[in-house]
Amino acid sequence: MSKLQASISSSPLIAILRGLSPKSAEGIGKALYQSGFRMIEVPLNREYALESIEILAHHLPEDCIVGAGTVLTTDDVEAVKAVGGQLIVSPNANPKVISRTRELSMISLPGIATPTEAFNAIEAGAHGLKIFPASSYGFDHLKALTTVLPQNIPLVAVGGITLNNYPQWLSAGAQAAGIGGDLFKADDSLSDIKQRLSAHF
Predict the structure, then answer these.
(1) Is the pLDDT score of 1 beyond 80?
(2) Where does residue 17 rank: exposed (0-12), middle (13-18), buried (19+ CB within 10 A)?
């Protein structure tokens, strides 16, 4: 069982923290961990993302996989590795990014929408596949993908996933789901996050 699969078996949810600030990273990360989250992604297309990833990576237990989203280049991969990140999530399936992620012993989770993209990503070495944006394609598209994709490659639904509807995506065949704006917004305080988590977990 891969590290990604082991993490998903512990919790099928990925917290996507777009706009997380370094000053709140440790507190929010620990609150998520205590609520059961074992994967945290900080998208790189916001300021201070790498600083926040470094704080999370060094203050959360080893069984929590921390990494970056919106990873578009091999330079991005190397920058995430340098601050202690383990997870590389992309909106697309760039073979060079996937390959470099594997070379650095990190976890590759590229974005796909079609069977062609999915199998190309798998051939390039992806550990899992992110169907994105999931809500644009819907449950039937997800179910169709699961009939042809290898069962040992986790399929993660991202895009339009909420704290209320994620169980439906898991029932439709996703092994995991990434929750972004419905879980965290850049101006949220630690108390906001704790209140939201206590209402759902």
Answers:
(1) no
(2) buried
What pLDDT digit, counting tens, does each position of 143-183 carry? Answer: 999 999 999 999 999 999 999 999 999 999 999 999 999 99
Task: Establish whether 130 is a catalytic residue.
Answer: yes
- Catalytic residue, chosen from 130, 143, 185, 194, is 130
14/178 Cα distance (integer angstroms): 4
Catalytic site includes residue 41: yes
- Determine which one of 41, 78, 143, 185 is catalytic: 41
Q: How far, in Å, CA of 199 to CA of 141, rounded?
A: 30
Structural domain harbouring 157: 3-200
C-alpha span between 190 and 24 (Å, rounded): 7
CB 132 within 8 A of CB 111: yes
CATH number for the domain that contains residue 122: 3.20.20.70
Alpha carbon distance, N-terminus to C-terminus of the chain: 26
What is the torsional sign of CA 56, 179, 103, 80? negative
Neighbouring C-alpha atoms within 13 Å toward the C-beta of 137: 20
Beta-carbon contacts of residue 133 (< 8 Å; ≥ 6 apart): 158, 159, 160
Token duo for residue 22? 């370094």
Number of domains in the chain: 1
Q: Before 12, cis peptide (omega within 30)?
A: no
